[in-house]
Design goal:
CATH topology of the largest domain: Growth Hormone, Chain: A
Number of helices: 16
CATH architecture of the largest domain: Up-down Bundle
CATH class of the largest domain: Mainly Alpha
Structural class: mainly alpha
Largest sheet: none
Oligomer: single chain
Radius of gyration: 21 Å
CATH superfamily of the largest domain: MFS general substrate transporter like domains
Length: about 400
């Protein structure tokens, strides 16, 4: 996650450089890059997960880390956009090991310790993605290619650690044959179709809008602040780090207290209202100071996600929780393909046509959260309002 986070503040800047400073064209290209990366994640995640069930977790994690390290070297040396795009596609495949890492934790943890250990894994992901953009911004301020070399070094160190230290977690007798029907990323549609009754159907569509709105942050933050405020790589990285810290504090400290006070439904509504206001603040921002006001508001939007997930979990029985989470992961993958294109293309249109605000992508995010709120309200009457358990954390 540290290596992935390092890329966030510099990749769009490198694309702008390749496009000769044309922000509109760079936004279009960035959207295509984001779509391709998310598509590879969507297709590769279940395949790598199934391969780890067949051959063990360790080979998949080792080959993925090695491939990611070599891929960052390719991107560091990329002479043009075509080679950079190829590197991004390969990155989408080699970085699609989150499910495999989670399976490793499940293999080595007794049931009563899994929630705590998944929390440790989530904290490691969160810290890596907070420190990564800040470090990438500082490194990119020196040379836009330097963060790619550092990311390559981190990934290759990861490979060395895995090779010399990390043991296999899946015993041979627990492995199963590889089956394409299991490694199918489209299984989510069948699951949601079978469970569209009650409040789940509305909550799932609302969650999809939530996931799409979230894509405006990684796809537009760098381009928008560069275009509007001319922020340096260092400034972008530090502000992204602040966004990550605020989101992690909300998830770790405030969410549980909010659910105890207002219930899952009330927490969902309050989180969405903060998100609507925060994205509108980003879109309108006439100055950097006004934009920074939106950072804690978007951070408080983080109240919404766990409450939303807990409400959806309450709509299916205990034997279907795994299917629900896997299906939601596929839904996030689809949103990850749509969001970058939607926001970067709308930004390109707004910057090329007079009369349209450059903050249009963030206004769209705010509108998506309004739709999410309107869809969720009827379903909340059916949902439970009890303290948030492990099912609400992600």
């Amino acid at each position: 996650m540290l290596a992935l986070g390092i890329m966030v503040p510099v990749l769009p800047k490198l694309i702008v450089q390749f496009e000769g400073g044309d922000h509109a064209r760079a936004a279009q290209v960035t959207g295509v890059f984001g779509f391709a990366w998310a598509l590879m994640q969507f297709l590769a995640s279940p395949v790598l997960g199934s391969l780890s069930d067949r051959f063990g977790r360790r080979p998949v994690l080792l080959l993925s880390s090695l491939g990611l390290g070599l891929d960052y070297i390719l991107m560091a040396l990329a002479p043009n956009l075509e080679w950079l795009f190829l590197g991004r596609v390969i990155s989408g495949v080699t970085a699609a090991t989150f499910a495999t890492a989670s399976a490793y934790i499940a293999d080595i943890s007794p049931p009563e310790q899994r929630a705590a250990r998944f929390g440790m894994l989530g904290a490691a992901f969160g810290i890596g993605f907070i420190v990564g953009p800040a470090l990438g911004g500082v490194l990119g301020n020196t040379d836009l290619r330097l963060p790619f070399w550092v990311a390559a070094g981190l990934s290759l160190l990861n490979t060395a650690y895995g090779f010399f230290v990390l043991p296999e977690s899946l015993a041979p007798e627990k492995r199963r044959p590889f089956q394409w029907k299991v490694a199918n990323p489209l299984g989510a549609f069948q699951f949601f179709r079978e469970h569209s009754g009650g409040g789940l159907g509305r909550l799932v569509v609302a969650a999809f809008f939530y996931y799409v709105a979230h894509e405006s942050l990684p796809s537009m933050f760098v381009l928008y602040t560069d275009f509007k405020f001319h922020w340096s790589e260092k400034t972008v990285g530090l502000v992204l780090g602040a966004v990550g810290v605020s989101s992690m504090l909300v998830s770790a400290v405030l969410t549980g207290k909010a659910v105890k006070l207002w219930g899952e439904g009330g927490t969902l509504v309050i989180g969405l209202l903060f998100g609507i206001a925060g994205f509108a603040c980003y879109g309108y921002a006439p100055s950097p100071t006004f934009f920074l006001i939106g950072v804690p508001l978007v951070g408080l939007w983080g109240l919404c996600g766990p409450a939303q997930q807990a409400l959806m979990s309450s709509q299916v029985d205990a034997t279907q929780q795994g299917q629900l989470q896997g299906s939601l992961s596929s839904l996030r993958g689809i949103a990850g393909m749509i969001g970058p294109l939607l926001f970067t293309q709308s930004f390109a249109y707004a910057t090329e046509h007079r009369g349209w605000p450059p903050g249009l992508p963030y206004y769209l995010s705010s509108a998506l959260l309004v739709a999410c709120l309107l869809l969720s309200l009827p379903a909340l009457k059916r949902g439970r309002s009890e303290p948030l358990g492990a099912s609400g954390l992600h």
